[in-house]
Fold each of these.
Amino acid sequence: MQIEVYEKGKYQLLRLKDDVGLNTDLGELKIAIEAQLSKGVSNIAIAFTQKSYLYTKSIAVLISCSELIKDAGGHLAILEANRDILDILSVIDFDKMIVLYNSEADMVTGTVSSAPR
């Protein structure tokens, strides 16, 4: 899995370059997040591709990452989530535990997404 990592506003952005699907292992994402936390970075945003879809295994990794970030005193944000991802996050109430942004510009200004697209 290719992950582009760069700073954007107060967040370290991890932009996934590959679609997430049924057989995707998000272990590399967790390793990338752990690496950022070990550097003292605690505000982390994840951007999925527009064709990504979350399944049980990937949701479990996201929840685990969220707990690691929270324990480090930081915040997890999801950036540019497609409708399917927003719906899944809403169904499991995970959207109440993280911050959702529609774009990098919104993330920089702190304009939180108010409704699923």
Amino acid sequence: MGYRAVFRCVAGCPGDYPLDEVLYRCPACGGLLEVGHDLPALAARPPAEWKRLFTARDGAADTPGGSGVWARREWVCPAVRDENVVSLGEGRTPLWPAGRLARDIGLEHLWIKQCGQSYSGSFKDLGMTVLVSMVRQMIADGRPVRAVACASSGDTSASLAAYAAAAGIPAVVLLPRGKVSVPQLLQPLAAGALVVSVDTDFDGCMAIVARLAVDEGLYLANSMNSLRLEGQKTVPMEIVQQLGWDVPEFVVIPGGNLGNVSALGAGFDMLEALGLITARPRIVVAQAAAANPLYLAYTRGWRFEPVVARPTLANAIQIGNPVSVGKAIRTLRKYDGLVEQATEEELANAAARADRFGQFTCPHTGVALAATITLVERGIIRRNDRVVVVSTANGLKFPEFKQRYHEAALGFGVPYANAPVMLPNDYDQVRAAVARLG
């Protein structure tokens, strides 16, 4: 049967708008939009049938691109025709049972959702497949789209450039100069995007690209475009399915521009509304202390004020004026949410601690792990609670972060540093080093 999805105002202003309309804010109030689905039509299929369908599609060859997003297409973006889907095999990422790490930090049940095991190395691929597929369909239907564009602190630009290249659509990305890792800079360059390195921070890049979208006819690919969040809301759907259609007590996610927070809520909302789950998790947003406007709002009873984000090792969340803050606060209120922060020392050591148990953790996941450790130590997360930490990017994108940690070059204590043992070409000395393993 056919399903329908439209843009709607998050504040409840009347009006439905087609998903192929170039629209980012409500025409009536100027607030952000969200994608609304025809839930009665979706509810005509019983929960058990949805579960069987999604399970059957896992790994199915006929799912576009082997995608975990398009395996749930009825719940995401049903209007995109098969020939316009642009997929790079996103989604279906592992839910890693971190048993040894869990015991080390005082938990019995901890999983890490490995969203960085994706084509461009971050969870942004989940949203970009939806957005670029819709743009491809708009172009096929004769709509004038000059290029897709974004401001980025690293991962969004890499993902947008990759998907735009796969679709044959020009891409423009604005990066804050000197504030992204070398791999994050190289990814959009290699994909052929127009990369503009601007002498400002992410918030400055965002202000410029928002104006370009109006003045130059560029299609905006940042998370203020609700199409992005439709793909990202499949993260909780995958988590629940991977846990045998069960819900953990806590889901912890790093927060920067905060679109991922409302995406988590949207995914759990649909699962609950359509009867696939009967409980909700508590959502925890983890911010770097150097860029913590949501944390400060949380401590003030949700009174939000932008901040000037200071430099942080977690560069992708160095954002002082997040676009999706209103949606994020609404989600956290509904999900009995928490916001915690992590210092540079805490996030770096949490990442390195996780690495000792088999991870190669990005600094942003380090923020989420540090927040988890803090909440365990305070007794807010109890020993037997089931906790899922969302890892948003692949640690391989941040070699300078790892190198500086293990060289003890970060300016604070690094108890998990592991420097190489430098020896001459001498068997006996190498053997002696090995013998010290015990």
Amino acid sequence: MTSHARIYVIGAGFAGRGIARELSAKGVMGRVVAFLDDDPAKIGEKIDHIPVLGPIDDVVRLLEKTPADEALIAIPGASRERLRRLYTTLRRANFERIRILPSVSQILSDEAHFIQTRQIDPQDLLGRTPVNINLREALSYLRGRRVLITGAGGSIGSELARQLLSGGAERLYLLGHGENSIYQIDTELRLLQEEGVGEQAQIVPIVGELTNREYLRFLIPRLRADVIFHTAAYKHVPMMESNPVAAMENNVFGTLNLLDIAADTGVGRFVLVSTDKAVSPRSTYGVSKRLAEELVLRTGTDGSGLATMVVRFGNVLGSRGSIMPIFRRQIEKGGPVTITDPAASRFFMTIPEAVSLVLTAGGVGRSGELYVLDMGEPINIREFAEQMIRFYGYEPDREIPIRTIGLRPGEKLRESLFDRDERPADSPSERISRVERSPLEAALLERILRDLRPICFFDQNRPAEYRNRRKLRMILSEVFPQLMQNPDEPEY
């Protein structure tokens, strides 16, 4: 955005007014020339000398615009349906640049900042309207606490960090093994703080590996974290089918290391972010997450004093490696957009909504319990592809072709949030269900860990087992018979 941009703010409520005042005070990011609103009580008035025009559908076609003009939607509580109508109206009025203040600004109900806005994209328009959560209240259990986020550079981990910035935590530890991703979220959080977003939590970036048990034994006592949100995982299904030992090493033993040391060092609460791929797992990634669930839930009832819980949900819109950025890149190059199967469907939720519910569950959940987020109805992937193509102004099949490529290794046609022996019980909060379940027998879980260990970590007494993929799959298939078999699996 240049200083010459003329900005039309859609919505003359607290959010729009706050952003307009901020832009006026800085004077370098553009000039708000009008508010557009549908409220008859506001239309015709002036707010800080800026006119309020409306109704939106009527006046937007009459605006005399320049190529630099920009629309900024500042209605954080708007439904998906209303956002779709607004987007269509603004596009028809030839606004090429449309920004939005996402609903995550509900974290604080009395302020909004320009830095929180971004270019509108499909995740803002597709799917259902996110639940309206009072995060100030939901995060009260974290006020004054030290919070550790593993996988803090990932899609879920970084959004946890953004929302926790407003939660009153004393310190945020950002742990990850990717230097660049930790640098990016650390830099972003500090910039948000400089712009007045959130509270002044101390931010501590940490680069390290969960599979390095001695490192964790050195690190965790020094952090004195009160709460851990464990999001770190290798998670791309086809990639983990090609690297199954890495999936077990990182997702299972990394979780075990963190759990053991957290329990030994006085951490109070541990929340694992899990996935619907853990239900009747067909992929090695799904099995690794199911075993991680079992480890976390076992610890919550073993008398260690560490309160643990699992929050399971399906796909999130816009995460790295998910279909949304893949479809976007395919559309930008003119297609084709590739889908696995016309009948394939997935549960979808926006990243901010999923994280808000994870944070809520962390406060209301009980130790040793599994919670599942209400994902709504599954979305057909072909229909989703068609909606994305239309979002970018093209017609499916006519201008951008859609091609079916078949399911990839480890993928299912449809996902489920509950296994056969699981059923939803009470609901401690809106869109969160506690799950009644039968855990893996303790002896069986220990046997699996014992058998997997020499495959993941070199044992000089069993050298032939190290990185042995066939043996790994054989061990897992005995407990999870639905795991996909690969007759061409190399031994190493």
Amino acid sequence: MSQNVLLRAVNISKHYAGVQALRRASFDLNAGEVHALVGENGAGKSTLIKIITGAALADEGEILFNDQPIKENSPGYSKSLGIAAIYQQPALFPELTVAENLAIGRERSGPFGVVKWKERRRVAKNLLERAGARINTDAIAAELSMPQQQLVEIARALGADAKIIVFDEPTASLSEEDTQNLFHVIRELKSQGTGIIYISHRLEELSQIADRVTVLRDGQTIGTRKMADVDRDELIRLMVGRELSTIYPKRRAVLGETVFELKDFGSHSAGIRQINLAVRAGEIVGVAGLIGAGRTELAKTIFGLEPPDEGEILLRGKRIRISHPCEAVEHGIAYLPEDRRKHGVVSTCR
């Protein structure tokens, strides 16, 4: 791992309406390093990243890029330095193609504003290959899965010659296979000298990907460790400030009657059919399968996002019909979707 320090955040403090979000927090990142940033909700991780990327200004302290102080940071200026952020919710233009999204902010049109479409697609394909993505350059962004959208974001960062990439909870909605694919891409970026800031609540995955880890608590830097020198229990102790004898212990639950049941349930448009499932009171039932097996489609159909056209739903033994999310809500059924921005808010229910 190179010891060329790309970025230093030194004694950063930030107030928000009387709330001390950061208290003299410090952080540094080497070239060719994956540096994890962890802490409980409210620890100050997001505020520190906003200051690094220019979305917010620090009240005190300084940011240095290649040992040069950044005096007046802004999103545009940080981008010009080669700092890119990839958030849990990708920020693509949904109605544009992948090639068009990758061209924004990078491509300069020719005389009279003529777009060289062949060249645009060629560059987009090259960037996607570098990001490890097999995605059609003419695909509409809104039709891509969350993992595909993240890969397009990575390709966009590569197109901007990013020297530092921030990954903010990148695996929150990814399957194990997608997570491992993302880790492969991150390792490739690291081998090219890119500095990676990696934020995650999934502490068990840090040993696979991170070189160092910095812990924030109550807006302060508690410590920085080599990832090889700490384990999950030590990280938790640093994050919460005390020893925890057990984390979310498994509790014995007394199972009650069947409260929810699917009988020969399916949706032609969603590509699922003949699903039989029963859930008892106090029970957690997992639904597993490979990508494309229909897990997400089943959840969408139960919640009324896809139209069911066969079988039945029984709620406490009584047959119900759900053709719209509002009807699911009225029956006390909730849905925590993969894409929270698109499906996480039902604004038309009374």
